[in-house]
Amino acid sequence: MIGGTVGEVVESKHPKFAAGDKVVGMGGWQQYAVVDGNMLGMLRKVDTTHVPLSAYLGAVGMPGVTARYGPVKLCAPKAGETVVVSAASGAVGGAVGQLAKVRGCRVVGIAGGTEKCRYVVDELGFDACVDYKQHKDAKSLDAALAEAAPNGIDCNFENVGGEILNAVLRRMNAFGRMALCGMISGYEGQPIPLANPALILTQRLRLEGFIVSEHMEVWPEALKELGTLAATGKLKYRETIAPTIEDAPEAFLGLLKGRNFGKQLVKLI
Ligand SMILES: NC(=O)c1ccc[n+]([C@@H]2O[C@H](COP(=O)([O-])OP(=O)(O)OC[C@H]3O[C@@H](n4cnc5c(N)ncnc54)[C@H](OP(=O)(O)O)[C@@H]3O)[C@@H](O)[C@H]2O)c1
């Protein structure tokens, strides 16, 4: 299985890497990996003086860069605008909200459960959080979102799709922007119909999907900001660590059920 990993160089024939270096790369679901240090995006040396190694798989790694792509490149929210992000307690969602707060926005999260919502507001500093599990029908979800985003929504960072996206779409302001990052509610093959696409027209919305690995040009500046914020305690995150490689499949399935809290990691060694 492919996958991002962090670890330590055991042996190297590459002049830029030496045994003992801490690295992040595409090592896969295995305890040891042979990696071509010349291949773009395959291996990067990291500094663990102020940022723990595991964070390079989360807030200061691919999920963090993904999170930053929405607010910075797609939505470009102005201070005072309202940003809504789903899967808000997760690796990507948690960083989206904090990066939008740094840019002066009102930030609303959508997450499953009281504990996750409390964390999003109390620890990550979001302005409000809607617990979608407490609002199972569209009317109730609409009312909760209206209370959390009284001025409507200017920027949406979508991680979930389905009923959550439908509710957000109903509250989008004219000329709003929607960054489509993930549709996790459909990852097990469920249909996730868009209830009212006419709103895209009537509200003159801009929707754009993106795949972060296709935008390698943004990684250096993103990692710089994320690293600085994490090292100074301004970018907070949580991790759920599965204890062994045997637990990896169950941990992966757990993501689709919301059993993880923050970045799901697997301890390989
Ligand atoms: N476009 C890209 O380049 C890119 C890159 C990385 C990740 N992504 C996407 O970004 C999203 C977040 O990824 P992540 O790694 O940060 O994961 P995560 O948010 O840490 O974990 C996934 C979360 O999604 C929520 N979820 C799962 N199934 C759901 C459902 N049926 N309905 C509502 N919520 C559900 C759960 O949170 P609750 O308990 O709150 O429901 C779960 O904890 C995913 O959709 C992923 O595919 C996209």
Q: How many beta-strand segments?
A: 11
Count the DSSP helices: 8
Q: What's the gyration radius in Å?
A: 19 Å
> Which ranges are low-confidence, i.e. pLDDT below 50, for 5 or more consecutive residues?
none
The number of domains is 2
Mean pLDDT: 96
In percent, how much strand structure appears in the residues?
A: 15-25%
CATH topology of the largest domain: Rossmann fold
Query: Biggest sheet: strands, sense, closure?
Result: 6 strands, parallel
Strand order of the largest sheet: 6-5-4-7-8-9
What's the CATH H-level superfamily name of the largest domain? NAD(P)-binding Rossmann-like Domain
Q: Given the helix and strand composition, which structural class is it?
A: alpha/beta
- Globular, elongated, flat, extended or rod-shaped: what is the shape? globular
Distance between the termini: 16 Å
CATH architecture type of the largest domain: 3-Layer(aba) Sandwich
- What is bound: which ligands? NADP nicotinamide-adenine-dinucleotide phosphate
Helix-strand layout with pairing:
Layout: E1 5-8, E2 22-25, E3 43-45, H1 62-75, E4 82-86, H2 91-102, E5 106-111, H3 114-122, E6 128-131, H4 138-148, E7 153-158, H5 162-170, E8 172-180, H6 198-202, E9 206-209, H7 219-231, E10 239-242, H8 248-255, E11 263-266
Parallel strand pairs: 4-5, 4-7, 5-6, 7-8, 8-9, 10-11
Antiparallel strand pairs: 1-2, 2-3
Helix pairs in contact: 1-2, 1-7, 4-5
This protein binds NADP nicotinamide-adenine-dinucleotide phosphate (NAP).
